[in-house]
Amino acid sequence: MKRSKQGVTVRRCDCHDVPLECCPERLRGVIEAGASRVGLHVTGGVPMEVASLIDHTLLTPDATDHDIDTLCDEAAQYGFAAVCLNPTWVVRAHQRLGDTPINVCSVVGFPFGATPPEVKGYEAQRALGDGASEIDMVINVGALKSGDRRLVQRDIEAVVELCRHSDAQSKVIIETALLTDNEKRLACELAKAAKADFVKTSTGFGPGGATIADVSLMRAIVGDALGVKAAGGVRDYDTFKALTRAGATRIGASAGVKIVIEALGA
């Protein structure tokens, strides 16, 4: 099917009546053939209620400048909430995204959280100065499991307070797969007391990722005061739906494009 708009012919697929390059069946075939990323110039049809909840993520240590450019271009094309990347790429992402509404999210203390509060504070300050408008920080998991509540509180506050003064959003990664339910509860309570904007399940580099049970528990603890970000192992639209129904208000995923494509075909 073809439709003409302002003298430009737009080819549309017959199965879903969306622009041909957005056809879910066509794109699913590309992904199944082995593509991990699909760059598109989307002209319409993207479900913003899905895309706007996704932090498009690339945190692997071997990511290249080309990979980061692709990540940013996809985020702008699809309207993702943010790109989430390592601090070394913040300047490049900030410049690449320019005047788009896409936020740049930098991780801090990543992925183990085993650095002092002062170091995390400096790392956050540097990322914010480089152009980040969101910070995902990892708590000191070992201190939490040792019962050192005061250190964990200082750890969180060192980053959250900087974000607040910079009008940036803060997300506190608690690495749920390493914690008991009581430890998850305490971590969420400390993040809430520090007035963080979100609690986040996982780094994606731990022994497990986001689960429905953990998201539900975290939502029950923080109530409506904080957002809940689910990350780690979110690779398809069905998982996206299950986690948002459980209470997640942001999803961290490297498979953001695939999730949107599947949502288009749902």
TrEMBL record:
Keywords: Cytoplasm, Lyase, Schiff base. SMART domains: DeoC. Its EC number is 4.1.2.4. InterPro entries: Aldolase_TIM, DeoC, DeoC/FbaB/LacD_aldolase, DeoC_typeI. It is an enzyme of class 4 (lyase). One of its GO terms (cellular component) is cytoplasm. GO terms for biological process: carbohydrate catabolic process; deoxyribonucleotide catabolic process. The keyword Transcription does not apply. GO terms for molecular function: deoxyribose-phosphate aldolase activity. It catalyses: 2-deoxy-D-ribose 5-phosphate = D-glyceraldehyde 3-phosphate + acetaldehyde. Belongs to the DeoC/FbaB aldolase family. DeoC type 1 subfamily. This is deoxyribose-phosphate aldolase. The lineage of its organism: unclassified sequences, metagenomes, ecological metagenomes.
